[in-house]
Structure formats: C-alpha cells, structure tokens
Design a protein that fits this description.
The complex is a heterodimer of chains A (317) and B (365). Chain A is mainly α and 317 residues long. Chain A has helices spanning 15-43, 47-51, 64-70, 78-83, 90-97, 108-139, 145-154, 164-174, 180-205, 209-216, 221-232, 234-250, 253-258, 266-269, 281-301, 303-310; strands at 71-75, 100-105. The chains are: A mainly alpha (317), B alpha+beta (365).
C-alpha cells in the first residue's frame, strides 16, 4: 500500500489522538468553568454559607442573593415586622426573616440597562463604521492606505488607561462625563480599529466580481454593497460584533473613571454591592451571574458565525 | 442589440501600458473573440467596454452613442464573468431576476421573463435551487441566463468556459454558438483558447502586449496571418517558419531558401536585402522523394486520422501534418513539398507579412 505524506495530513486522526485532544479540551474547559460555576453556586447561597470555611459545595439554595441584588432594605424591629401584613413576595419573606423590610429597588437594574445600551450601541456603531471603512480600504485606492491602516491599528497599541486622564479632562470639558453618549463614543473609538482590521480581511476575501456584476446589472455601488457584499460578509460582521461587544460589555477602567451615576455601567457597580450591609457575596455573585447572561446568549446565537469567523480563509470558497 | 465601436483605445496602469491604441468595430449581431495569451490586454479591453475600467484615452461607442465615461450600470450591457459571480445568497431564480429588479420591471413580468430564459437555457428545473450546489455547466447557464434575461445591447464574456473541464467545454462551446445563432446578440468574448475562438466567433481579434495584431474572420486569421505572432499563436502545431536572407522584387514568384528554389504567391512589394521567413502550415507540407528541400525525420506524433512528423531542417524543426498511414523511420532523409500558393512571407524584423497575391485576395474580396 502506498501512502502519501504531506505536511497537512488529510488522513482521519487516529482514535488515540482524538482521545488525547478531547481530554485536553475537556480539562481546559473544566479549569476555565470552575470560577464561573463557583460564582453561580455562590449566588444561590445564604450569606453565612457563602463565607463558611471550608467552603460548602452542598448547601440549602436560596434566592436571598438575587433579592438583595435588586432591592435596598432597612432593618426594623420584629414588632414592626410582625405588625405588617402577609409578605407579598418570596423576597419579602426572605428579607423579613433577616429582620429587615424592602425599602425600594436597588440601582442594579438601571446600571444593567446602561451596560446594554452602551455596549450594544457602541458595537453597532463600531461595526457599521468598520464595515464601511474596511470596504473602502479593500476596494478603492486610498491615498496612504498602508499608513492609515497602521495608524488605525496603532490606537490599540497603548493600554487604554494611558489615555484615561486626558480623556477624563476632555469629557469634563465637553460635558460627556457620565453620559451614555460619551461611553458609546469612547468604546466605538476603541473598537473601530479592531473592526476595520478584522472586516478588511473578510471583505478582501469576497471577490470584486460580485459587485461588478451587480453594477453591470444596473445597481449603484452603494446598492451593490448592501445587496451583494453585505450578505456575504455576515460571517465576518457577526464575529467582529462579538469581539466588540465583549470588550464594551466587560470594560472596567474607563467605566470606573468616567461614570459614577446616571451612565454608570454594571462592571463598576457590582463591587459596590459589597458595601451595602456587610459583605454580601451572594448578591455580588448574583449580579455577576446575571451580567454574564447577555454575552452568553449573544455568543450562543452567533456561535456558528464566530467559529467560521475565527477560522476564516480556511472555510470560505 | 447594437454595434460596438472602439476608437484608439488606450489603458495605462502607472507605467505599464495594458492596451495600446486599439480600434475595431463589432457589427450588430456579430460574435467577436478577443484572443491572446494572459496579460495581453484582452480582459482590460473588455472591462473598458463594460465600464469597469476607464480608458486612459480613446472612445467607446455602443449603438452609436459615446459611452466612454458612462458608468457600467448606464451602458445596458451584460457581462459573464470567468467565475460566473453568481450571488451565493440567492437561489437561481433570484440570480436571474436580479438585473430586472434594478430596472423596476413588474413582478409578473419578471417571473415570466425568468422562466422564459430558463427554458431557453434548459435550467427551468433548477430555478428554486441554491446556486452553491450547482455543477459547472449549470452555473454557466445561470450566469448566461442572468445576462440574457435583460435583453441588453450586447454581451461581454470573460473566459466563461475557463474553469470547466474539457468535456463540458466542448458542449458549452456548441451551446453558446447555438444560443448566439438564436438571439443574435452582439457579443465580445475573451479567451486564450484559439479553438474556442475559431469554433464560435464571426471575427477574431488577436492581441499581444496590448496591441491588436490582427482583426478578421477565423479563416483570414488562419490562412493569412498578418504577423508572425499571429501565425505562431494560431494553429496546433503552429505555422512553421523557414528563415532566410534575401532581397525581393515586386512580382517575384519564388524565393531561395538554403539554395533551394521555392515557388511562392506573387510578391507585391520591393524589399531590400533583409531577414525573411517563409511561413508554412503543417498541413501544407507533403513528402516527396524528388523534392530538393530535404531534412531528416526527428520524430512523429500519432493523432489517429493523421500524424505530425517533425523534420530537422538544419535550422530547426519543421512540423508536417500528413496521413497516418505513412511510415517514417527516425533519421530517415525525406524531401518536403510545399503547397506553394498557401505560403506566407514575413519580414522578420517587423514581424509583418509581406504583401503578396495570397494576401491581396482577401482585400479584393
């Protein structure tokens, strides 16, 4: 039997190598999942369980963390609590069992909404601008294209915190401090460089003939772009959007510095939960757990595109 | 349908000159093949006609209208790309309907015209399929359908058969020509394959280094090549050149090659002593024991109905196409008889054919 040896073997991997690969992947997944799993577990613990040592794996689950996350509470005498009517919700009941009553909603939900608006807003802007810029760089003779592209990339080279103070001062002057618009603009500026570079790669891969065919078929370049190029770039756009969204969603340093009230996002808010009424780790964990959900859902929805996006070039034909 | 007229068209990319001073006319309903090796400027010429490139200078007329600087979408032409450029996110029907949507044709009419076109190309059974799963021939037909459906002024095709395998290619060559006979659309077809050009075209423009070497019918191009380049590019094997140095007088009817007197069509020009080449097609050579033009058999290639015999003439090989039943031994000395009224003479320096009675025939009819 003759065998062909090439650098990239096209032979089906053997059972052993498949098993080794699977073991490594699973081990890596477990290691990275442990902190996340621990956070989710903690969010369902009671405050005493959350700080018990040795840590408890088996415990009585409670929604106390979630109740505390979404409410502010005041301590009352048991006589006062007894004088109240029947508890109106599970949270009411849990709170009363701690000799407290719910005083009102906490700031978590508004902060979470801020995060949604700012992260999705800036992602939308960065990807839209990035797609147009990438198309321009890919298809037209842009004067100094190379230098411009390098300049765009170079904005990513310094740590964001290096420009934090100048931006802080600028934003104060412009009245953009602690506004959603300010944060959207900032994250867009940071993400647009990544978007241009990633998308240029994807658009370069789409043959020009498609637009030329559309233009001959009677469409303007703009129409050809929307009707022919964009549908074929969806994979790249989805992958880019996820990268931009993850950055904007998780960003902490600028958020701490530039937001404090009306436009504060969830990341700087979550640590402040600790201070309100002792070390309330379950509430912090609950805040973190809920915070992870949108990015998880978004990634799961777009996982096909993301995977193809990461391996782009190899799949496309 | 419309006539395409190209006047002194030039295209430069920086210092590189892709097309130099080209002029030709494709008459209404004619099929022109732009033939040449890769990088000869044929695709650039086509793209300028389409409006995908702007010429450096010169003019382009479609149906008498100057469209030199019109946008592609304003020219009312159809273009079939080498890789077909079928929109992968649309099915066959939507691909074919796409140009009609741009024109704002009513829905019912789009439907009718798409189906009529599909029937013509025999792809009506795959209208609702995705284009990504189609075989090469069907992709080709869909690309043609997208071109035909809009009834444009002319069709431009850029090596549309280049990616098909040989078997399919012959089939598509026939289909394309039949289609052309039926709808009589003015067509410019770019190819590097002389057989495709010969089989389909009414006229052929042979291009090299951005210059149109010759423009004429396939017969003219084959029988009366205007330059040595054309003579060498067309024909398989190409025309043989017997080089010699001589002066020629108007009215001469023979030349002397290696001391052998050879009859040629009457020369129509006085020529000072210069390096010349006698051009002879392989099928215009036969073997004769009495011929004074002699050489040694170098080898033969069997082609079924005939064979190509290579003969070493001292200055290089000459290939002859002769019946397959003759037997030759390698090294054997043979005499070559040339079909004298089918010979061409070339000036080696300019590469151009020397005017003779053979070339005059074509000018006078």
């Amino acid at each position: 039997m003759s065998s062909i040896n090439t650098a990239h073997s096209v032979v089906e991997p053997s059972r052993t190598s498949k098993r080794i690969a699977a073991t490594i992947v699973i081990a890596y997944a477990v290691i990275t999942m442990i902190p996340l799993a621990w956070i989710v577990l903690t969010s369902f613990k009671s405050p005493p369980d959350s700080i018990s040592y040795p840590p408890k794996i088996v415990f009585q689950p409670t929604l106390e963390g979630y109740c505390n996350l979404f409410t502010t509470r005041t301590r009352q005498t048991s006589d006062y609590i007894a004088s109240l009517g029947a508890p109106t919700s599970t949270c009411d009941e849990i709170t009363r069992s701690r000799n407290m009553v719910i005083a009102g909603p906490s700031n978590y939900w508004p902060r979470f909404q801020n995060s949604l608006v700012i992260a999705f807003g800036s992602t939308f802007l960065a990807v839209s601008l990035g797609t147009l810029a990438a198309y321009g760089f890919s298809r037209f003779k842009v004067p100094l294209a190379e230098d411009l592209l390098f300049f765009i990339l170079s904005t990513r080279m310094m740590p964001p915190i290096a420009v934090a103070i100048p931006i802080y001062l600028m934003y104060r002057q412009l009245g953009l401090s602690d506004t959603a618009l300010g944060m959207i603009l900032l994250y867009t500026a940071v993400n647009v460089s990544l978007a241009v570079w990633l998308l240029k790669g994807f658009i370069d891969e789409i043959p020009r003939e498609y637009e030329e065919a559309a233009m001959i078929d009677g469409y303007t370049r703009m129409q050809a772009f929307f009707k022919v190029v964009l549908p074929q770039a969806t994979t790249g756009i989805a992958a880019t959007a996820i990268f931009c969204l993850i950055f904007a969603w998780n960003e902490y340093a600028f958020a701490v510095l530039l937001t404090s009230g009306a436009a504060q996002t969830a990341p700087p808010f979550i640590p402040t939960i600790i201070g309100e009424g002792g070390q309330d780790w379950p509430a912090v964990a609950a805040g973190t757990t809920i915070f992870v959900v949108p990015i998880l859902v978004f990634t799961i929805l777009l996982r096909k595109q993301l995977l193809r996006g990461i391996t782009f070039g190899a799949v496309r034909k | 349908m419309a006539e395409i007229r190209i006047e002194n068209l030039r295209k430069e990319f920086g210092a590189f000159s892709a097309v130099e001073d080209s002029s030709f006319v494709v008459r209404d309903g004619e099929f022109l093949a732009l033939l040449g090796p890769s990088g000869c400027g044929k695709t650039t010429t086509l793209r300028m006609i389409a409006g995908l490139e702007l010429p450096t200078s010169g003019k382009i007329f479609l149906g008498g209208e100057d469209v030199t600087f019109n946008r592609a979408r304003e020219r009312d032409i159809a273009f079939v790309f080498q890789l077909f450029a079928l929109y992968p996110h649309m099915n066959v029907r939507k691909n074919i309907a796409f140009p009609l949507l741009a024109q704002g044709v009513a829905k019912a009419e789009i439907r009718a015209r798409v189906e009529e076109t599909a029937k013509l190309l025999q792809i009506d059974h795959i209208l609702d399929r995705s284009v990504s799963g189609l075989a090469g021939g069907d992709r080709q037909r869909v690309a043609l359908g997208r071109a035909i459906v809009r009834r444009p002024k002319c069709f431009l095709m850029d090596e549309p058969l280049g990616t098909l395998d040989a078997e399919f290619r012959d089939l598509m060559v026939r289909e394309l020509r039949e289609l052309h006979n039926r709808i009589r659309a003015t067509t410019v077809y770019v190819t590097h394959d002389q057989l495709e050009a010969m089989a389909m075209a009414d006229k052929i423009a042979v291009m090299n280094h951005g210059i149109i070497e010759q423009f004429g019918t396939p017969q003219e191009i084959y029988n009366r090549p205007a330059t040595m380049y054309v003579a060498d590019f067309i024909g398989s094997p190409p025309m043989n050149f017997l080089r010699f140095t001589a002066g020629l007088q108007k009215g001469a009817r023979s030349v002397v090659v290696d001391g052998v007197d050879i009859s040629v069509p009457e020369v129509h020009l006085d020529l000072a002593e210069s390096e010349l080449a006698l051009g002879v097609r392989p099928e215009d050579i036969s073997f004769s024991d009495v011929s004074p033009l002699r050489g040694a058999v170098f080898g033969s290639e069997y082609h079924g109905t005939n064979q190509i015999v290579a003969v070493e003439m001292g200055k290089g090989l000459v290939k002859a196409r002769v019946p397959a039943d003759q037997n030759f031994h390698i090294g054997e000395t043979v005499g070559l008889e040339l079909n004298y009224d089918r010979l061409s003479l070339f000036d080696c320096k300019s590469g151009r054919a020397v005017p003779s009675s053979r070339y005059a025939e074509h000018h006078h009819g």
